[in-house]
Amino acid sequence: MNKGRPMADAVLSSFEPRQLRDVLGTFMTGVTVVTTEDAAGVAHGVTANSFSSVSLDPPLVLWSQSLASRSHAAFRDSDHFAINILADDQIAISNHFAKSRDDKFSGIAHTRGVGGVPVLEGVAAHLECTKVAAYPGGDHMVFVGRVERIGHSSRAALAFGNGRYMVGYSHDLGPASLRLGTSRPAHLQGLRIATEALPAIARSVGDHTLCLAVWGNHGPTAVHWEPSLRPVSNQLRPGFVMSIARSATGRAFAAFLPPEMTQPLVDEDLRLMPATGESLPARRERFAQEIAEVRERGIARAIGAGPSDLHRVAVNAFSVPVFDAEGQMAMALSLTSGAARLPPDWEGEVPRRLAEAGRELSTRLGREGLP
Ligand SMILES: Cc1cc2nc3c(=O)[nH]c(=O)nc-3n(C[C@H](O)[C@H](O)[C@H](O)COP(=O)(O)O)c2cc1C
Hints:
Layout: H1 17-25, E1 29-30, E2 32-37, E3 43-48, E4 52-55, E5 60-66, H2 72-77, E6 80-85, H3 91-97, E7 110-112, E8 118-120, E9 125-137, E10 140-152, E11 158-161, E12 164-167, H4 175-180, H5 186-205, E13 209-216, E14 219-226, H6 248-256, H7 259-272, H8 280-297, E15 300-305, E16 315-323, E17 329-338, H9 349-368
Antiparallel strand pairs: 1-11, 2-3, 2-6, 4-5, 5-10, 6-9, 7-8, 9-10, 11-12, 13-14, 13-17, 15-16, 16-17
Helix pairs in contact: 5-9, 6-7, 6-8
Bound molecules: flavin mononucleotide.
């Protein structure tokens, strides 16, 4: 019997540090670089996501630092620190300050604040603090600071969760859904479910670029990317419209959406294809056969595409449909990798897992997308 215990897949009374880290990682945070100046006037800075607000009146904040940190003595002995809340284009700054090294500030644009603390340029916001307490906390020291000065820009803050950098955006309808007292429209609900599932899908298929696409005004449109450590493009962005005839994503839509929605775009795409000596009717005929195969297999592919405007290298791609509660194709779940890393076989392990993820998402959308 579940007597008031929170629902969880597993409840552990003894756990490995890795398991604890994974649980802590589910709590999403921003990313800060905490800075100080030592008695010799040398600047120190560390990337930290342990920052938290404590009190508004008096204005207090805290962060905790590993005792093993090379800069620990500097923060322990200093009376001031600054919390620099990184903007979403400052991943390189975060990585820079997350490594121990001499002279971390060389080449890093900054000014000096209260007590000489370095304030980084381009941050979303910052707080200059006087240290008022330091509490031992296991292998960390918790520093509490009184906020003396603050700075705020219009830049969006970088987010961090499950060990990955993230971009934060407002939750669907936000407060409006509470006011209306309604659940979210099914298509937004579906997109949210699929977006949230992407990191787990990425783990199951391996290190390939994953993309969620919907059918937009101009055809197959990317709405969310789960980047790979070995990216195939630096052009990937939400709103990117893909070719319906040549991309795996487009072919999935061509196969599973009603033809009246897709045919005009297919015709145009086939007409604009580089000349191969094949007549337009022959192209149409071949495309229809290929799409019939996609329908039969439940998965689309594009082999050896590129290099192009989008991809730096030749890529292989697969795409599967995700259906909503009404059985309509709601989005495409697609995967791309350099051709050398992703064999084109229909029966490969990666397309098999992608197809499985597509089916699972469809099941979830059917179940959870219902009003
Ligand atoms: C996203 C992120 C958050 C981190 N948060 C903390 C933290 O809260 N406290 C801490 O001591 N180290 C944290 N670290 C690790 C430090 O940045 C890292 O140990 C750094 O090398 C310390 O610099 P130092 O050795 O020059 O003092 C974090 C690293 C990353 C990437």
